[in-house]
Amino acid sequence: MVKISDLRAREVVNVVDGRRLGLIKDIEVDMEEGKITAIILPGDGGGRFLGFFAKDEEIVVPWEKIRKIGADVILVEVSTFTDPRHEQRIKY
């Protein structure tokens, strides 16, 4: 079993291109199911990220896109950009 605090300390890396996406900022939980539905990462803070994100936007990675949770890193498979969930959050 892994604690949320342990997950937040692990770097998130995209296996498609090897990019470091950062540390988990928050999580989304389906309260009815009692399951994590997505991890939320901060934007890069440098203005643009992967050509799509402004500096204050969040990156929402659905739980299904997580490929492996290791001791030091979380590997995700994010290959394309899809519709924004709302103004400040981008969902893969």
Automatic annotation (TrEMBL):
InterPro entries the record matches: PRC-brl_dom, PRC_barrel-like_sf, Spore_YlmC/YmxH
Domain PRC-barrel, first and last residues per copy: 2-79
Signal peptide region: none
UniProt xrefs under NCBIfam families: spore_YlmC_YmxH
Protein name as annotated: Essential sporulation protein
Gene from which the chain derives: ylmC
